[in-house]
DNA sequence: GTTGTTGCAAATACTTTGCAACTAT
DNA sequence: ATAGTTGCAAAGTATTTGCAACAAC
């Protein structure tokens, strides 16, 4: 992929003309150090449980910066709350959500990616981004 | 609209143990008679402009029944408001959303459908449903 | 006449925003 | 010192819910 190389968090803030604060670092740490797909409340509570004082407002404000700078990916599973996951130079992937357990499985399929671009082009458009979620249930063995 | 769909709607209500009211009919008519992807507020306002007295509560309550009975498809474009479209026996399709104009284009691709089932199965799951949205912009001519 | 339905307003859930106090530079 | 940042609470959005008046059967 062609993302700009992994920049550190402080550089992002500098680039955005924002100051470095322990609250902002805490938000990034919290998302970064977890491979789960967390929601804002979850991130907020974890930071507080780690003893760092932060407000929900700051969590949301910091997430916006991280999403804008492609450090974090925002995903809408359709239940009203957005989830966030770090994009530490990972390749792009989509999600499969088990309707029985709620488990989120990541997947990537080259053919699928190519096909989407082809479909957009056939319609006179260029693919900018996409949302693709497969709601699945376990196969009976 | 035609009589057979009205009949269907009444049957759905009967099946659900619900009464037939002009508000419920108005909601179904409003969604049914438009091929656009409307949001609840839009549907609510249109009904009122047509001179039928209805409340937002009733619009939402009726939409729930329609969605549950697969008369209407609910879609989340990611802007916080759900959109609704009629499912008058149409074949399944996905959506392409132009990021410049907001236009929503429907598409269907067999290969894409098959590929998704294959991916789910390769992971030990069965595909139940999916959400697939391509965010696109016009190709430069 | 019952019993379900409606409209209203209040409640909810998530997120955003205004502002005075605070803090990084 | 001072301009950006924070936390709080209030506001904003979309949707849901309790309940008394009302309509369908």
Written account of the structure:
The structure is a homodimer of 141-residue chains. Chain A is an alpha+beta fold and 141 residues long. Chain A has two domains: 3-86, Arc Repressor Mutant, subunit A; 94-136, Dna Ligase, domain 1 (2-Layer Sandwich). In chain A, 39% of the residues lie in helices and 25% in strands. Chain A is built from five helices and six strands. Chain A has helices at residues 9-16, 22-32, 40-49, 56-68, 110-122, and strands spanning 38-39, 72-76, 82-86, 94-98, 104-107, 125-138. In chain A, the strands form two sheets. In chain A, strands 1-3-2 form a three-stranded antiparallel sheet. In chain A, strands 5-4-6 form a three-stranded mixed sheet. Chain A is globular and about 45 Å long. Chain A binds a DNA duplex (25 and 25 nucleotides) through residues 17-21, 23-24, 39-41, 53-58, 60-61, 80-82.
